[in-house]
Amino acid sequence: MNKVIIAPSLLAADFRNLEREFEKINSSEAEWIHFDVMDGLNVPNISFGFPLLEATRKLTDKYIDVHLMIENPSKYFEEFKKYGADSLTIHYENQTNIKEQLQAIKALGMKAGLVINPNTDVSVLEPYLSELDLILIMSVFPGFGGQKFIDATYDRVKQSRRLIEDSGRYIILQVDGGVSLDNSQELIGAGADALVCGSALFKENDFKGYVVKLLGK
Ligand code: DX5
Ligand code: ZN
Q1: Which pLDDT score is estimated for 1?
Q2: How far is residue 55's CA from residue 46's CA, in Å, rounded to a whole number?
Q3: Is 206 a catalytic residue?
Q4: What is the reported pLDDT for 217?
Q5: Which of 15, 87, 103, 158 is an S-S bond match for 111, by CB 3.0 to 4.6 Å?
Q6: Which residue, among 40, 82, 87, 44, has the nearest Cα to 63 in the 3D structure?
Q7: CB within 6 Å of ligand 1 — which residues?
Q8: 80/209 Cα distance (integer angstroms)
C-alpha cells in the first residue's frame, strides 16, 4: 500500500473502450476509482449511474469511491451499496440531516464522506468529524472534468488536516478537481492523502507511469 491514494476519475475515461480503460487502471498503482454521479439538479451536468457502477464492479477489484452530486442522495444509498460502492461522499451544500445520512451510509457497510465546494468554509466540517471516514475538498466547482485547479485549495487542505489531527480520528483527506503533476506534490505536502485525477491522467499515454509520478515516486 502506498502512503497516498490515487483515484482516477472515471468521468475522464474513454467510454468507447471501457475494457481497455480498466486494463490501464487495474494494472496501475491507483488504489481507488473515483465515480462521479451527477443528476443535472445539484450540478449543471448529468454523468452516469447504476448501470455503469454495476459494470465497474465487474471490471475491477479496486475500491470504488462514489462522489454524489444528486438531490436526495439518501434515497439511493442502498442501491449504491448493491451495485458495488465502497464509499459514498455527500455534499455539505443543500443537505439536511447530514449526521443521519453519514450514519446510514456506514450502517450499510460503506465508508462515509463529506465534500465541500471551494467557497464553503472548512470549519463547517467540524460537527461531523466523529462520523467521517473521508473529507473531500473540491479544488474546482463540481460539475465538469478538465477545469483549472484553484490555488486557494492548498490552505484549505492544511486547515482540514489540522481539524483531522485535532479530532484524533483517522479520516482520509481527499482533493478533487484539476489535479495533475503541477500540484500533486504540493497537495501531498499540505496534508492530502487521496488525490482524484481525471483529465490529466486519462490523456496520458503512459497511464501507469503518470500514477507513479503523482505518488511522488
Ligand atoms: C468534478 C468531478 C471531478 C472530475 C475531476 O465535478 O467531481 O471528480 O471528474 O476531473 P479533472 O481531474 O479532470 O478535474
Ligand atoms: Zn468527483
Answers
A1: 65
A2: 18
A3: no
A4: 83
A5: 87
A6: 87
A7: 9, 11-12, 34, 36, 67, 140, 142-147, 176-179, 196-200
A8: 31
pLDDT digit string, tens, across residues 168-179: 999 999 999 999
* Banded model confidence at residue 55, pLDDT cuts 50, 70, 90: very high
Residue recorded with cell 488504489:
31
Residue bearing cell 486519462: 202
Q: Scanning the structure block, which residue is given the C-alpha cell 462520523?
A: 131
User: Given 86, 133, 176, 193, which residue is catalytic?
Assistant: 176
| Nearest atom, ligand 1, residue 198 CA | 12
Facing residues of 137 across strands? 116, 175
Kindly report the number of other CB atoms within 10 A of residue 114's CB atom: 24
Atom 12 of ligand 1, nearest CA residue: 198
Q: Is 36 a catalytic residue?
A: yes
* pLDDT (tens digit per residue) in 139-174: 999 999 999 999 999 999 999 999 999 999 999 999
By alpha-carbon position, which residue is closest to atom 4 of ligand 1?
A: 145
> Which ligand is nearest the CA of 145, by number?
1
Helices (H), the chain: 18-26, 50-59, 77-82, 98-107, 153-167, 184-190, 199-202, 207-214
Q: What is the pLDDT of residues 8-30, one digit of tens each?
A: 999 999 999 999 999 999 999 99
DSSP 3-state assignment of 127?
A: helix
